[in-house]
Amino acid sequence: METLDETRRRPSGTRRAGPGWPFTILAVLVCLVLLLVLAGRFSLVPGLNDLFGEETKDRSGPALLESIQDMSRHEGAVGTFQIVVDLEKDAKYLPDAVRGTRTLYIAAGTVGAYVDLGRTGPESVVVDEERTSVTLRLPRAALGAPALDPDRSYAVSKQRGLLDRLGDLFSDNPADERAVHRLASQRIAEAAEESGLVARAEKNTTSMLEGLLRSLGFRTVRVVYA
Question: pTM of the predicted model, to two decimals?
Fold first, then answer.
């Protein structure tokens, strides 16, 4: 049995390992993983990109055909448009930092102008007795629905208040951009109405029909839009 004096005189050359050694090992492992990730990110070590690279898997199901519709339209002109949509929604009594959204979106899309030849009938075609002259009465050209191009449309910036960010955590469709897409389609449709696409479609349709009917032996071809 050791006395108190002997315990005090015992050499202290060896010490028991302190409780911090697991944290040291963990820190070393974390550093090694970070070095490997950085090496793969900047291609410092060949082959690491395959180890830490991303892999995309397409698990989409097959496309389902819902309907087929026969078309009798002649698309005489197509316009390509681009617009910057700046959509802001604010709360009435709350600052923007708390409640509100603002989206800056670049939208690109096309609008086609067409003549619906399916609306014509036998009474729309008048041929003279000598079969050298023909008159066609066609409906006026119309504009189709705008088609946004997903490859050329993108959001430049999105600003959301605190409550909107919290709401996105519990939303099935966070950062929903349907309102922006609807506004972009509306603006592109308005621009198409002022672009002269309708007149261009009627002119091109007339040229197409004149070439077709003259190849059939008609010398005079008259196209009337009403």
Answer: 0.64
Phi, psi of 44 (to 5 degrees): -75, -30
- Can you tell me the mean pLDDT for 178-203? 94
**Above 90 in pLDDT, residue 110?**
yes
Q: Tokens 């974390």, residue? A: 30
Task: Determine contact, residues 52/37, Cβ cutoff 8 Å.
Answer: yes
Cβ proximity of 143 and 78 under 8 Å: no
Helix (H/G/I), strand (E/B), else coil: 60: coil
d(CA 36, CA 208): 65
> Which residue in the block uniquely carries the two structure tokens 């026969």?
70
Helix (H, G, I), strand (E, B) or coil at 165: helix
For the segment 114-127, what is each residue's pLDDT rounded down to a tens digit?
999 988 888 999 99
DSSP state of 65: -
Sign, CA dihedral 59-62-67-73, equals positive
- Per the model's pLDDT, the better-predicted residue between 159 and 198 turns out to be 198
The C-alpha atoms of residue 52 and residue 41 are separated, in whole angstroms, by: 8
Give the residue among 155, 151, 150 at the shortest CA–CA distance from 104: 155
Average pLDDT score over residue span 6-11: 50
Task: Give Cβ neighbours of residue 66 (< 8 Å, ≥ 6 apart).
Answer: none
- Asked if 145 and 127 touch (Cβ cutoff 8 Å), the reply is no
